[in-house]
Specification:
109 residues; two-stranded parallel sheet
Length: 109
């Protein structure tokens, strides 16, 4: 895509994902967050999965089954969720999975 430019945030995202299990991309409207999440990040990570809660079926499934939504995608890293704020239940499920993983790895902060 000719209009895609080098994203300065990309190197920061890659660095942060080495030391953090969860990363949030926030910013003003129409600044390229979704393009970064949908097009650029999946090409940078071999095992990435992009999901968007703009799709009604994905949004409904994640809303009704947030733990199952994460479980069925657990082999992917990272799982990129666009429009996550549309399914607030996903945040508790992510927190639980991160906490569980830390306990299993005996990593405590």
């Amino acid at each position: 895509m000719a209009h895609l430019r080098k994203r300065h945030a990309l190197s920061l995202i890659k660095r942060r994902l080495k030391s953090s299990r969860v990363l949030t991309i926030q910013g003003a409207r129409q600044t390229g967050k979704s393009v970064l999440a949908r097009i650029i990040l999946p090409t940078e990570f071999n095992n990435a999965l992009f999901e968007t809660f703009d799709l009604a079926t994905t949004k409904r499934f994640a809303h009704e089954n947030p733990d199952t939504f994460l479980e069925k995608n657990k082999e992917y890293h990272p799982i990129i969720i666009d429009e996550a704020q549309k399914v607030p239940e996903i945040f508790d499920a992510v927190k639980y999975q991160v906490d569980l993983h830390l306990l299993q790895d005996n990593i405590f902060y």
